[in-house]
Write a structure and sequence with these properties.
alpha/beta; six-stranded parallel sheet; Rossmann fold
Amino acid sequence: MTAPAILRARSPNEMLNIASIGVGGRGWSDVNGATQGQNLVAFCDVVTGPTSRKGGYLEAAKRWPRARRYQDWRQLLDESKDIDAITVSTPDHMHALPTLAAMRLGKHVFTQKPLTHTIHEARTLMLEARRCGVATQMGIQNQSLVGHRTTAALVRGGLIGKIREAHGWSHKGWAGPAEGRPEKADPVPAGLDWNLWLGVAPERPYAEKIYQPMKWRGWIDFGSGTLGDMGIHIFEPLVSALGVDAPLSVKSVGLAPHPETWQPSNTIEYEFAGNQTTASDRLTYVWRDGKAGRPPLARSKHLPTDLKLPNQGTLFVGEKGAIVHPHGGQPSVYPRDLLAGYEMPVIEKRGHFENWHEAIRTGKAACASFDFSSPLTETVLLGNIAVRFPNVKLQWDSAALKFKNHEQANVWIQTEYRKGWQIEGL
């Protein structure tokens, strides 16, 4: 890699030169969002041939014919002197490495959620972002939605009183096959560089319709299950509204994952230290996904007994009432009479990528900067360690980045990269 670029102030009207790593599926949405009103000067995808994903390399070549095209992100970064900012929209296991490499070159970075695949990676990216002085943002676009921010404002403002407990859930159940990987290898499709797709993950043969597209989320080596996919969104109001610090403990009360794939259903209990927004000196947050279902309505006497909770969302249970926030939607307050005479907060619209662009130009922190999203990612990924040790309450020491009471659990805080993919710090 070349030496870091010297960061300079940007004119408010000056277009940014952006490059995108991963332009299919979620990456297609990201490259289009990140380049609104800006220049896409380069893009990269490990699949250069036809794909069933939305967008992709061939579509990007049509839409941006003047942009440089790459299959290997390392080559893109080696030729990045004219690039101001990078988006990273790859499978989870390949978030940290290109993000870290880009920051060390002085590039501003947007990286999809969850920010990283391991807790060690998340902490490393936060510290490196501070050292490099670049504008960072994680792809939890829902954090910028008016409904999402309204929920946080209502809870933080004390509408339902101090918070007794909170719940998050998703009906999704990202899981790979219980029997593990297939025994036979399939021919690698034309246009896919399987070695680049594997990246830091352990070597394994390609298998048709097993890992990609999108099925990687259920595989432990590549994805973070439903917790990493949706939990990162749904945990966010807890942090925005209550300002809780790292959890004190985490406990899974479901089944352990299979050796190579995540379970399709999980229930995980987090315990946080209380603060001025909570009803006691401890706050319990329960996460459920897949068949684990939704929280019982009996958790709050203020919820109607016939209420149908959304497929995905957050429930805040307060001393005076409850708030249900559907993922991506508007909050509902119970009992309704709490809103009588209440002056609703005025929340202005905010574009997630526009906020990142502004951070690049002004030097102000973006929403979901790594100072916010790295600790959030660490919290979520603690649950993915807890599921390996069912019914064990793991005591977490955030400052030391280790569990106080379980050395086996500490093994999963950091994973070893495949030979040839190591980088200092990760």
